[in-house]
Design goal:
Strand content: 15-25%
Helix content: 25-40%
Number of domains: 4
Shape: globular
Number of strands: 19
Structural class: alpha/beta
CATH topology of the largest domain: Rossmann fold
Largest sheet: 6 strands, parallel
CATH class of the largest domain: Alpha Beta
CATH superfamily of the largest domain: Cobalamin-binding domain
Length: about 450
Amino acid sequence: MTDHGAQTAAGIRSVLETFSHTPKAHVQSFGCQLNFCDGEKYKGILQDLGYELTDTPEEADVILFNACAVRAHAESRVIGRLGALKPIYEKNPRLVVGLCGCMAEEDEVRALLRKSYPFVKLILGAGAMEKLPESLLKVYQGEKRHETLKFAGLPDESLPTVRESGFQASVPVMYGCNNFCTYCIVPYVRGRERSRRPEAIEQEVRSLIGQGYKEILLLGQNVNSYGRGLDEEINFPALLRRLDAIEGDYFIRFMSSHPKDATPELIDTMLQSKHIEHHLHLPVQCGSDRVLREMNRHYTLEKYLETVDYARSQSPDFGFSSDLIVGFPTETDADFEGTMQIIERVKYDNLYTFIYSPRSGTKAAEMPFVSTQAQIAARMERLLKRQREISEAFNGRFLGKQVRFLAEKHDPETGLMLGKTREGLVLEAKGTPEHIGRLLDVRVIGVKNWALTGEML
C-alpha cells in the first residue's frame, strides 16, 4: 500500500470509530462471472477497512451494487433495486450507497442517478475498485457525490479478496476486450485488453490450491487473447500448461473463448493436461455467416466447425457449450435455420440463449429489425425444445462410464449432490453434506436433458 493509500485507510478508520456500532457493508454483484469476481475484491477492501460484511442491506452503513451493463433488462432490475434503497437511506442518513462496475461507466445511467437518485453518493467505473477507499473518504468528508471512471489499468495485485466459496475460486487472467462485436457494450465500458503477468496468476492459483480449492475458474472477456501487450512471449495455452504443472487435486476451467482465436494448440493443451476440463465454452452466437459479419465476429462457420471437428477427432467425448443470440436485428428465417443446423451439427452439451437486447451506443442498436417480436419468440421456443432433445441424446455417450466430478451442492430433502464433471456436464448423485467441495469418482447410470445421474464408486 502506498503512503497515500495508508493515509486514506487511516482516515476512513477514524471516521468509523465515531459510529456507535460496528459499521457494516453490503455488496451485491449482478451479471457476468468477472463482475462477481470484482465483487469479491470490493468485499475484501471494505473488510480490510474495518467494515463487517452483511447480507442484509437494512443493517448496512455502506451498500455497493456492482452491476453489469451487457443487457438492458439487467440494468432495469438494478435501477429498481437502487430505488428500493431510498427508505433505508432515509432511516440512516450516514448510509453510503454506491454503484460500481460496467453500468457505472454509462453516461445515461449516471445522468439518471443525478436526476432521480441523489442518495447514490459513490460511482466507481469498471476497473476502478482500488479507488474505493479514496472515494469513500471524500463522501465522508462531505462531497455530495464522488465519481471515478475510466481507470483502465490493471487492479493492484495486493487487493484483498473475500471468496464466496471455500472450494471454488475465480481468477481473472486479463481485462477488457478488443473485439467490438456490434451488439456488445463491453469494450466501451471495460476498455481494451490488458493481461496480468503470468507469475502473478501462477502465484494466486498456487496459493488457492495450497488452501484446498478444488476448482479454479480463469476469467477474461476473451481468454484466448491472453498475452497480448506483455513484454514476454506467452499465449493462453502456454499459461494453461504453466498452471497445470502445479501439483494438487483440482480442476481448471476457463471462460470465455472467442472462436477466431481458438487453436489446435489450445485443444491439445487441454487434452494432454492433468487438471484442465475437457470442455470448451465456444460462443457461436448465430448460424449465418452473413449475420456473423454484421455482428463483427471475425470468423466463419467453416472456421468454427474446424475447431469442433479437431477436438472431437482427438476425443469423441469432448464437450462444447455455446452462447446463441436469437433475433439479431437483421436475422431472417433463413438465418435462423442456419442456427438450427449448427446445433444439430455440433451437438452442444449446453446452450446459453438470449433474445437480442439493444444496447445504446453499439452499432447494432441502430439497425432496423426485419422480424417481429412474435417471430423471434417462436424461434427461441423452437431452439430450446430441440436443444433439450439433443442434449439428452448426446449425453448418452457417458452411460456406464466412470467420470470425476466436483460436488458443489447438497439437497437435504432428496439427498442428492449436484456438481460438474471434468467434461463440464452437470451431474447429480446420492451423497452427504460432507462430500461438498470434494472431487469424487462416479459411474454414470442415467441421462437427462440437463444433467447426468451417477452413483458413487
